[in-house]
Specification:
Elements (H helix, E strand, L loop, with lengths): L14 H20 L3 H4 L6 H20 L8 H16 L3 H22 L11 H30 L4 H32 L1 H17 L2 H24 L17 H26 L8 H29 L5 H32 L3 H24 L7 H17 L3 H12 L20 H9 L11 H12 L8 H12 L1
């Protein structure tokens, strides 16, 4: 079936086009009805509503991919983790993670979805050329198609056929004359003749005034903009993506220069490890919190910088130099892995004595991500087949992020800190967990009831009241599974 060209009035609307238009209107209407409170409540307004919207939005674009014949089984490698992220809105509050998700999910979706439409995608790597054409062509093309999208909506609402146009015009004129006669002549005359009718007419006028209010106008305008934007994205990204691969992309880089740079950096790393060997493997942490924090964070930032450096080096040197330089790169990665092990050891001691927080949990998770990444990078150097390093790095990230999103992060943090705090040498202050969301509301009340939280002179009642208010202030569609479980728990109590 040939799709009509947006903006070309000589083309008829096809069945698929009409379905897409209707779905985009439905998505926009759903947003302005069930997600509008996001502007006031922020992240806490995203629950069942965000899950349903995300599932419908994502499902619609995957359907377009399937209809266009671009779907492959390997696309599950990004469809599954992106689906897990959407499911997380149904499960938890966790405002800290959801803020990050509002950036991570759209960017990941745009990259992977457009990659799925890339012509001969198995032969093209994720490099600067791919990213440049993705963001400069596919994203900017949406702006060019918004006008076409709006025109097609007008053609859908007002058919091009002159017969139907005349019928619609006559219907609109009839309604306009009816409203003018009713409110200008009939209602005033009948209201003056009967007081009861006058009160009823006044109530109707007030209802109409409330209905046609400024917030409603805002919603309608926003819904129209969203509908046009969604359809523009669907017709833009639902086409084949192609660009010419430049010859220089396959050229090798100078092995001598690369070998000297890599060898020099490796020597510096080995020297650093030799000098630091006496206190890299600390068995305990100093009591002073600031000293402990500096000790651990220095190791973490070593990890972070080295990870970026390794990705950068791999991106420009992997399989582009002589075999000897590739062996230096292997040794360089192994040395980096030793620093990673040291940093992870420090972090484990930090958590063991001082407990988890958002920062320490995600720092630990980053350590795990980098460990898997380093092991994988080493494995790539011992096999002959070339791998797309950047693409695989992103896929590993999105999978680990998706798994983390359905993991009960806040419950894990709270339970772990309570367990670690039972040790005599523990330096954990449970009061610091007051930054957590209603995800742990039921846990706090249960632990407080059995006296676990009474070891510190911290009053949890204000925190409980504020989190309960966040839950009760939500509309039913803004709640999530953790909220519903707490409500059920409170009813049983």
């Amino acid at each position: 079936m040939n799709q009509s060209i947006p903006g070309n009035s000589t083309e008829k609307l096809t069945k698929d086009t009409i379905i897409k238009l209707a779905v985009c209107v439905g998505l926009a209407a759903f947003w302005v009805i069930f997600l509008w409170n996001f502007w006031d409540k922020g992240i806490y307004a995203l629950g069942i509503n965000a899950f349903v919207f995300g599932a419908l939005f994502f499902g619609f674009f995957v359907w377009v991919l399937f209809k266009k014949g671009g779907y492959l089984k390997e696309d599950l490698v990004w469809i599954v983790p992106l689906s897990l992220i959407i499911i997380s809105f149904l499960l938890y509050d966790n405002p800290f993670v959801k803020v990050v998700t509002l950036f991570v999910w759209p960017v990941s979706f745009i990259v992977f979805y457009n990659y799925a439409f890339l012509n001969n995608r198995k032969e093209k790597s994720w490099d600067f050329s791919f990213l440049f054409h993705l963001f400069m062509e596919r994203l900017l093309a949406i702006l060019g198609n918004t006008g076409k999208s709006a025109i097609l909506y007008l053609e859908f609402i007002i058919p091009a056929n002159d017969k139907y146009k005349k019928i619609i015009a006559r219907v609109l004129i009839g309604f306009a004359l009816f409203l003018i006669i009713t409110f200008a002549v009939l209602v005033p005359l009948l209201s003056s003749a009967d007081a009861t009718f006058a009160r009823a007419a006044q109530a109707v006028r007030e209802w109409v005034t409330d209905l046609i209010s400024l917030p409603l106008v805002y919603r309608l305008i926003f819904a129209v903009v969203l509908s046009i934007a969604f359809f523009a994205a669907a017709i833009t990204w639902g086409k084949e993506f192609n660009y010419s691969k430049k010859e220089k992309e396959t050229t090798s880089i100078d092995s001598i220069i690369t070998g000297i740079v890599l060898g020099g950096i490796l020597t510096v790393y080995l020297l650093f490890l030799w000098i630091q060997i006496s206190h890299l493997w600390v068995g305990s942490l100093p009591f002073d919190f600031k000293t402990t924090e500096n000790l651990v964070k220095s190791g973490f930032w070593q990890l972070f910088v080295l990870t970026l450096l390794n990705i950068f080096i791999y991106f420009f040197t992997y399989k582009k130099t002589s075999s000897f330089v590739q062996k230096i790169l292997l040794a360089f990665t192994a040395a980096s892995l030793l620093l990673l092990v040291s940093a992870s050891h420090r972090m484990s001691l930090y958590v063991f004595f001082y407990g988890f927080s958002y920062e320490k949990f995600f720092a630990s998770y980053t350590v795990l991500y980098c460990a898997l990444l380093f092991f994988w990078l080493i494995s790539r150097l011992v096999i002959h087949k070339k791998t797309d390093i950047f693409k695989s790095t992103v896929i590993l990230f999105i999978w680990m992020y998706g798994i983390m999103m359905i993991f009960p992060v806040e419950q894990f943090i709270f339970r772990s800190n309570v367990a670690f705090s039972q040790r005599e040498d523990s330096r954990i202050r449970l009061s610091e967990l007051s930054m957590l969301s209603p995800d742990v509301l039921g846990l706090v009340k249960r632990y407080e009831a059995v006296g676990v939280l009474k070891k510190e002179t911290f009053d949890w009642n204000p925190w409980i009241e504020s989190r309960e208010k966040k839950v009760t202030d939500k509309k039913w569609y803004e709640r999530n599974v953790m909220n519903l479980l707490y409500i059920q728990y409170s009813i049983k109590r």
